[in-house]
Each structure stands twice: as structure tokens, then as C-alpha cells.
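Email to the structure team, subject: Membrane protein model.

Hi all, the expression group asked for a predicted structure before they design truncation constructs. Nothing fancy, just the C-alpha cells so they can compare against earlier work. One-line instruction: predict Membrane protein, return C-alpha cells.
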Amino acid sequence: MGKRVLARRRPIVRAVLIGVCLTAVFVGGGAALAGWPESDPTAEAAEDPAEDASEEAESGAGEPTTAPGGSNVAPAPTASPEAVRRIPVPDDGPGTFTTARSAGSPVGSGDTVRRYRVQVEKGIELSEREAAVEIETILAHPRGWTSDGRNSFQLVASGPSDFDVKIATPGTVDRICGAAGLLTRGEVNCTVGRTVVVNLKRWVLGSEQFDGPVTEYRALIINHEVGHRLGRGHVTCGGEGEPAPAMMQQIKGLHGCVANAWPYEENGTYITGPAVP
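Reply from the structure team: attached below.
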């Protein structure tokens, strides 16, 4: 298995994902772009498309979603896992997107602020605002990427952004990822360039390999793909019974680790393992 990275075993810590939504305020501000790599296309072999240059997403100011100074707050999705599971997953869609009319304060204490938009493919029964709230709270979690003390994130509705998160039907994911030479087979997500595209099938149904609620699996999707945008590569299990790293392709199997959605332990230890060649 290679060198064990964590000094002690810890059981899976499941985030409390059901709660009230964040109260929001508008906050302006510029984006800090330093250290933002133009990473190579990355596709998950049963987990994780790129930005379609021909699409025109609707955008604009609207209802904000983040509380003032709302960094390091626990995820609080707007719907129960049962309600989310009832959302139909069409095989295909039009390939055009609506941008969430939501904006928030930066979350995290890092000097580098990553501005991002959330976009949902038109014609599917998923609220772009609810998706934006959930993604924002995942990125604000104290065990998320803000734990490194360097990175902060800010949800925006318009203007410059450092990356986009698109939620799309399997067919649209295949086309966008396929244009970059990635094979997703209607099943997985991918990251290409500045765009994270989430397969609606995984967002709604989760993965049989992940022992936890679908809301927590969505946290894994976002943490894994945003990790690629931060320049993180794939790793494997760090040791029998250890939490699986967020940068591990957990949908391929846990290899002795315990399913886990978060990059960091509660004590601030980064969860990792041997690099995947």
C-alpha cells in the first residue's frame, strides 16, 4: 500500500448536511488569480466536462446565498437526500446552461480568492440556486480546501470567474468531456481546463462504493474536482482502515480505506496517500 500518511486511524466523519440554508448578502471584490494552474484534462473512471465554448449561459445578479463573513460553515443543503433522489435523470439535454443568480461573501481565510459560478443544464428538475447554496457550503466547510489557510472561494453570478461548476445530463457530459478526448460513458464526472462538470446521475444517485448519504457524496465530487483545479493529482489509499483521500477515485473501490468526502481531518491533517502514476 505504500507509506501510510496518517498517524492514526479514524472512522469516517460524516458531515451534517441537512439544515437551514445560509442567509445571504451581496459582496463585491476582485479575484486573486495567483497560483491558479491550467491543469490537464482529468476524467474519473467512474466518478467525475469542460466548458462548451459555443454555449451562452444566462447570468446576472440576484438573490445572494452567503451569510456575512460566512467562512467555515457546515454544509446545509436545501433538500433531503430522499427528495433529491426523486429528481429525474434524463439521458441527455440541450447542452445549454442557466447560471445561478446568486452571489456571496468569500469563504475561508486565505489570501487567494477563487471566484466561481454554478450552472445547471436547462430542462432538468434541479434548482440552480439550491445547487449553488449546496456547493457554496461544501467549499466553506472547515474540513474542505479552505483548511490550508491559503485558498478562499467566492460564489459569483456574473463578471470574471476562475472556474465554473456545471451540472449536466450524462449525454451532455459525454459530449463536453469527449471534445477534450475523455471517455465518461454517461457515468462519470470530469475536469477540463477551468471547468468542473458534474454528472447529474452521480449528483442524484451517488455511488455504491460510497458508504454515506448522497449529500455527502456530492461533497466528495466537489472536493475532488476542485482539488484538480488547485493542482492536486490522484492518490490511492494511505492505509487499511484510514479515511480515503478526497483525491482518491473512490468510485473505483476503497482498497481498504473508509469512504470519506473531505480533504482534511478535523485536526487539520491533510488526508492523502501514495500518488497514482
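Residues 42-208+215-233 form one domain. The CA atoms of residues 166 and 197 lie 5 Å apart. Ping us if the truncation boundaries need rechecking.
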